[in-house]
Amino acid sequence: MPFIAVVLAALAVGFEQLVQWKYGPMGIIAFVALTVGIKARNTAIGGIGAVILVMLLAQSG
Hints:
The protein has helices at about 1-40, 45-60. The protein has about 60 residues and is an all-alpha fold.
């Protein structure tokens, strides 16, 4: 069980670094808002984070 938690944490940190590298500080803010919204079960915060991420993805395409 601890091994799985370490692997998941490493993947989360890696994804966070990828988002920051590709989309800058706004990507990190959106990712954090989405994560906090999901963990707190707050649809407003999660929705804001998701919308920002979608806008960043649409902009780069």
